[in-house]
Write a structure and sequence with these properties.
Blueprint: H1 7-16, H2 18-23, H3 26-35, H4 39-48, H5 55-67, H6 71-81, H7 96-105, H8 109-118, H9 127-136, H10 140-150, H11 158-167, H12 171-179, H13 188-197, H14 201-210, H15 216-243, H16 261-264, H17 271-282, H18 286-296, H19 304-313, H20 317-327, H21 337-375
Helix pairs in contact: 3-4, 3-5, 4-5, 5-6, 6-7, 7-8, 8-9, 9-10, 10-12, 13-14, 17-18, 18-19, 19-20
Length: about 375
């Protein structure tokens, strides 16, 4: 086990045997682990075999952790193993201030801030400087948490920080920073429009509801209620027309089609929802756009037939054919069937060519590896 450096297995045997515990050169073995950079097991042996009183050995173990940039582990190990760590009587060259200094030098600002607070080192390491380091490293949400913890709202521009998070498209972080950490005021509509500008439509839909800009369930319920009322009124009007024997007189504009009900009855979503649908269409997110158009009863503004034609132009043939069938408008696209079939065949051909190219590339790599293996 020693030759193979199976230290963990060896430690189990030693702990089970009182004789081995007395005869094995534990300190020498731990020294070997440190020199071979097997630091995790070395620390475990120091604890398991209660070697904390061997402070020279402990210091060399901490030296190894520092050299390996494992500064957080060095801090926790020092807390546990170094005598009087963090106190004036500490005899070790490693103390909280020295380790935090190394963390700052290596830009490990998150653990540095933790230990600055734990060991009251704010005067030596001003938190505002460390938080600015987090911002420079694009750890924006962590920075927000420490802004609130150290009450740095007056020293760091929260609006500028949120703007950086928006540019990085960290949408959930923006909301949390404003709602939980109070770094800035969140203008819900401006925020959602930023998401729309980034064409992240799924997130835009999510935050429309979460930020109270659009209650989809209430809107759809109101729309369906209006549709039922309009249908009942239309049927009642037709019955009255028959009873009064009005002959061929038509209801004209008073007869509302279900597909236009949402707009004609003034059951409209807010403008930002209409803008989102327009952005979806412009970005060729046509399947989702059409689904929402039908759900919200907005076919007067966004004609389904036009959206299906846009799907064909965008080579989204599968969705186009499905929507033709679902909307029962297949006869309107009789003249497009040949071009759709031709487009599908071209896409299938391109896909097969791509697969063949990938397969050839993988074969070339396999042959190259085989040649390298034969040369060795």
């Amino acid at each position: 086990m020693l030759r193979r450096r199976q230290y963990q297995d060896l430690s189990k045997f030693i702990m089970r045997s009182e004789h081995l515990a007395k005869t094995m050169p534990l300190m020498e073995l731990v020294e070997q682990m440190i020199q071979s950079n097997n630091l995790r097991v070395a620390g475990q042996w120091l604890r398991d075999f209660q070697l904390q009183d061997k402070q020279d050995l402990v210091n060399r173990y901490i030296d190894g952790l520092v050299a390996d940039s494992q500064l957080t582990l060095a801090m926790t190990s020092s807390t546990e193993l170094v005598s009087h760590f963090g106190l004036g009587a500490c005899a070790s060259k490693w103390n909280p201030g020295n380790l935090v200094q190394l963390m700052v030098q290596q830009k490990q600002y998150t653990p540095a801030l933790k230990y600055v607070q734990e060991y009251s080192l704010q005067e030596r390491f001003p938190p505002v400087a460390l938080v600015k380091g987090l911002i420079a490293g694009k750890e924006y949400l962590v920075a927000c948490r420490h802004i609130k913890l150290y009450r740095l709202h007056d020293q760091i521009d929260g609006n500028e920080l949120v703007a950086k998070m928006v540019l990085a498209r960290q949408w959930s972080a923006v909301r949390k920073a404003c709602k939980e950490y109070d770094v800035a005021e969140l203008d819900a509509e401006v925020f959602v429009r930023e998401i729309l500008a980034a064409r992240d439509f799924a997130e835009a839909e999510k935050y429309l509801g979460e930020l109270g800009l659009f209650n989809e369930k209430t809107f759809v319920k109101a729309y369906r209620t209006k549709k039922k009322e309009a249908k009942a009124a239309r049927e009642a009007g037709e019955e009255k027309k028959d009873d009064e024997k009005l002959g061929d007189e038509k209801l004209g504009d008073e007869k509302l089609g279900d597909e236009k009900l949402g707009e004609e009855e003034n059951v409209k979503p807010p403008p930002i929802v209409m803008d989102m649908l327009e952005a979806m269409v412009a970005a060729n997110q046509l399947r989702r756009a059409l689904f929402l158009v039908l759900r919200y009863g907005l076919t007067g503004t966004f004609e389904p037939e036009s959206l299906v034609r846009a799907m064909i132009e965008a080579k989204q043939y599968h969705y186009a054919l499905k929507m033709m069938k679902d909307l029962k408008i297949e006869e309107r696209f009789e003249g497009d069937k040949e071009s759709i079939e031709q487009g599908q065949n071209e896409l299938a051909k391109d896909f097969r060519a791509l697969l063949a190219k990938r397969k050839a590339t993988s074969v070339d790599w396999a042959m190259m590896r085989a040649k390298e293996g034969s040369l060795m």
